[in-house]
Design a protein that fits this description.
Layout lengths: L2 H8 L6 H25 L4 H18 L7 E3 L4 H11 L2 H20 L11 H23 L20 H10 L3 H16 L6 H4 L3 H19 L38 H27 L8 H17 L5 E3 L1 H9 L6 H15 L2 H4 L4 H15 L2 H10 L1 H16 L2 H22 L2 E2 L11 E5 L2 E2 L4 H9 L6 E5 L5 E2 L1 H17 L3 E5 L2 H6 L4
Parallel strand pairs: 4-6, 5-7, 6-8
Antiparallel strand pairs: 1-2, 3-4
Length: 525
């Protein structure tokens, strides 16, 4: 197949091979421990996380319309997976729920349910990005100091090891590993200093890639010196080594279809489908906002891609997947241009498992923590907060509420709270926008002119009643509905009630303009 036919069939192009291939290595290095950590937190076999990372990288990348998103197991699903395995009773039965969840997502894609992603407020999406940035900073600091009790990709405030994000910081300061700290500091210097390099050839190499090599080299030096400073394996990435830990044929677990007769599997499947779809849509929206080229992902196509991905992952013994914002952000920051990067990162996961597991197991968590720390800062920098503040309260309050809610709960609960805050803000704004009144041009003694908005819903009734009640005695009020396309019956009724009864008590003269159409519609006159 020629490159043009391959590109047309898959959407993958090789125009930016250098950028995408280098970026894929960085994404792979970050994704590897995330896959393992999420599997561990989910109470699932370690290899199940790698299966999902591979399927998300290869299959979803081929089918997706997103150029920069990267799919794989998500930290936000860890609790749901853990509870799902417990409710069903065994992992093979849970895999059936994963397959069913994929089928549900595929159906939702064909029903065009993905368009719901277009209704997420921008303030909430930006709040989500900032919150993830803050959590990355907070949660990576322990790894920077060599305190690796929690898995690298955890984003929940409350941890599985009886600690929370803040108590883990205290524990980290009390359990500093000097070598991990040295590697972290050197890594941060490289990552920050890379921005000041003027040589374009050197600068074209992603700084995170150099950081990983330097981290491995520093630890190798300490191993060679045999001075007791070398990192223990618990501070290094650890993936199964074929032939030592397990054989290839024992890596895969397959669904047990006998569970189909039990209702619990369908409940778990629906839960996974809904939560995974929401997290994917949110992540895709966030990645699109970070895309330097501002490309838009076709959301219904993404739902179908995720559905196929989850079906295949479930059939091969993998965890459920979503588009993952951390990997997408690392992908963008590493210079990726197209979906080739995500595809190659999936290939690299296979290569690592089959050919170079011992080399991968030499990578310090401290190096990866430094990469994620800088990624977090880029997501939650002070300029973003200043920009949101300048936009005004209507955007700033949902933005801040989303940040606080995500940081102190988890991603999905925080997003729901943020969406509720955004919805409440719209309601309050809508209630205030009942009419326009030009105070500057109004002169005392002249009629008070209230020009109703284009759309006046029942939410505006309270505002209208309050305004009419505050009109002074012996005044004249003109209520102008000539520009209104819709006025809810409740509002018409309130205005009529005031005009026929309330105004008489204050000797207020009421003139109604443009109400004939609405009177006919509601058969009031």
């Amino acid at each position: 197949m020629s490159e043009s036919k391959f590109t047309k069939f898959t959407g993958i192009t090789f125009k930016h091979l250098k950028n995408d291939s280098l970026s894929s290595i960085v994404v792979f290095l970050v994704a590897m421990p995330l896959c393992l950590g999420i599997a561990l937190a989910s109470g699932a076999p370690l290899f199940s996380g790698l299966v999902t990372g591979i399927v998300g990288g290869i299959v979803v990348a081929l089918l997706s319309g997103s150029q920069l998103a990267v799919s794989g197991p998500a930290a936000g699903l860890a609790v749901i997976v853990y509870n799902g395995i417990e409710d069903i009773g065994f992992f093979e039965g849970f895999l059936v729920a994963v397959v069913l969840a994929g089928i549900i997502q595929l159906i939702l894609g064909y029903l065009k349910a993905g368009t719901i992603g277009n209704y997420f407020p921008s303030s909430v999406i930006k709040g989500m990005l900032a919150a993830i940035g803050i959590l990355l900073i907070i949660k990576q600091i322990p790894h920077v100091f060599g305190y690796d009790e929690d898995y690298l990709g955890d984003l929940d405030f409350w941890q599985n090891n009886d600690e929370n994000a803040l108590s883990a910081l205290v524990s980290a300061f009390e359990n500093i590993d000097p070598t991990a700290f040295i590697i972290s500091i050197v890594s941060l210097i490289i990552l920050i200093g890379w921005n000041y390099i003027k040589n374009n050839t050197i600068k074209s190499i992603p700084a995170p890639l150099i950081v990983v090599f330097v981290g491995v080299a520093i630890n190798a030096i300490f191993i060679a010196l045999d001075n007791g400073m070398a990192l223990a394996q618990k501070h290094l990435v650890t993936i199964p080594v074929l032939g030592e830990d397990t054989s290839f044929e024992n890596l895969f677990v397959f669904p047990d279809w006998s569970i189909l007769t039990k209702p619990v599997v369908y409940t778990v499947a629906v839960t996974i489908a809904i939560v995974a779809s929401l997290e994917t849509l949110l992540s895709i929206d966030a990645v699109d906002k970070l895309d330097p080229q501002k490309r838009r992902t076709p959301l219904n196509r993404e739902m179908k891609a995720q559905g196929v991905g989850n079906i295949i992952a479930g059939l091969l013994g993998g965890l459920p997947m979503t588009a993952v914002i951390i990997r997408g952000t690392v992908n963008i920051n590493s210079g990726a241009k197209t979906k080739l990067s995500a595809f190659l990162h999936g290939i690299l996961l296979i290569v690592a498992i089959l050919l170079i597991p011992t080399i991968i197991n030499m990578i310090p968590y401290a190096s990866l923590a430094a990469i994620l720390l800088v990624t977090g800062y880029k997501l939650a920098n002070i300029n973003l907060i200043k920009a949101m503040y300048k936009v005004g309260p209507s955007q700033f309050y949902p933005f801040i509420i989303t940040i606080v809610a995500i940081v102190f709960t988890d991603l999905l609960i925080g997003i729901i709270i943020g969406l509720l805050a955004g919805f409440l803000n719209i309601l309050l704004k809508n209630m205030k926008n009942t009419y326009s009144f030009d105070k500057d041009s109004h002169k005392e003694g002249e009629p008070i002119r209230l020009v109703l908005s284009d759309e006046v819903s029942f939410l505006n009734k309270a505002s209208m009643v309050k305004t009419l009640d505050e009109i002074p005695e012996n005044a004249k009020v003109i209520i102008d509905a000539r520009k209104s396309k819709f006025i809810d019956f409740d509002v018409i009724e309130a205005i009529e009630l005031y005009s026929n009864e309330g105004a008489k008590y204050k000797n207020v003269e009421v003139e109604l303009l443009g109400f004939d159409e609405f009177h006919k519609k509601y058969s009031l006159k």
